[in-house]
TrEMBL record:
It comes from the Bacteria. The keyword Nucleotide-binding does not apply. Its EC number is 3.5.4.32. It comes from Georgenia deserti. Keywords: Hydrolase. This is 8-oxoguanine deaminase. It holds the Pfam family Amidohydro_1. GO terms for molecular function: 8-oxoguanine deaminase activity.
Amino acid sequence: MTEAAPIRRTAEPEVDELITGAFIAVDGDTEFEDGWVAISDGRIRAVGARSDPWPAAALRTDAGGRLVTPGLINAHHHMTQNLTRAYRPAVNGTLFEWLTTLYPLWATLDEEDVYLATYVAAAELLLGGCTTSSDHMYIHPRAHLIDAQVAATTEIGFRFMANRGSMTRSVDDGGLPPREVVQDEQAILADSQRVIETFHDPAPGALTRVALAPCALFAVSEPIMRATADLAEHYDVRLHTHLAEDTDEDDYAIEVYGCRPVEYFERVGWASPRTWVAHYVYGSDEENRRLAAAGVSVTQCPSSNMILAGGSADTVRLRSLGMAVGIGCDGSASADSADLWQETRNAMLLGKYRHGPAAMTARDALDMATRGSAHALGWADELGHLRPGACADLVIWDSSPVAQAGALTDPVEAWLRSGPSRAWRTYVAGRALVADGELQLPDLEDVLHRHRAAAARIQGV
């Protein structure tokens, strides 16, 4: 593959940029082996085959035979956790051991820490072809931490769904978190309302939206689950939480609530199309059917689940029930990497490992990381595909010529099988935030320096 420089067209432009010479995966159903895509005003204007007439463009970019896909969408993350990445005392623990080790460190977070962690997370995600990310921010030892996240993503130009998370049950109340990171119910609801009214943009093409996201049944009370669902209904925003991630959660739910996690989830009014859940490893087949019928979406986090050895969602089975399944990185302190390409590959491998070699193709995994995640976030109208009218969030992928040597018949399968692949260009709303494999973020070096100092302080090293 050659790295052809963009060239200017002399004709009167009809579109802002025309990407040519690419294998284009439009939406899981449509592909162009040698195609082009036209971008204008932050939207996909048109997509076509080489034989179709090209629109005149202000800028033409030759993709050099590379693969073009919709931008990958991260449907579950904990961005601030990159401040405790690969923290030695926690690396080999179970989920609950890992949490109880790290909660005291996260209790020291301030606005500067959250800004830096979010900036670094968005930068890392962009390099892995991610153009939109949610973030489950449920640690609130100080006020206005969501504000710091939105400041970072807005500065970068990254598409972001802030999840105003919450915890009410500390160790003193039979929960896991320390008292320093929990809040009372009225404070949570008041700030949830403030965050929605300040940052949620329901308009088409929005860069920032908000969801409400109590952490998990072992960290929040039943009243806050119910009240949060009511608030989300009032403001028409999405709902998110962890569900059925670990067998310890089963034991906890039976002891505290007298039922399994899914039954409790239904009891508090969360089983609706407004909701997507992270992990969802230990649902029974009957519970799977009930949640699918209710319209609940699931996000698989392959690397995190494998690292914590807690099992992984049966995505092949869930998809067969009609459930929308997306992909997430989860927190950097468990997965220790925010690379959606890697998560997409791992999702493919886990599907094959569990159900056989034909059970999960590269196209299935790509569909999860694009349309599946977009559906989970309630954004499937504009994101996760390259049909005309979609947001111009797309990736031109690059792989080593050595790794791709001999891969001649199927660029999509080769993309996940013959990696690693990195973004050559990552576009958000038609703006290239990665170009020629490099982040276009002038403040990145300074942010990384400050991030290192913050991480050292938090970790005590």
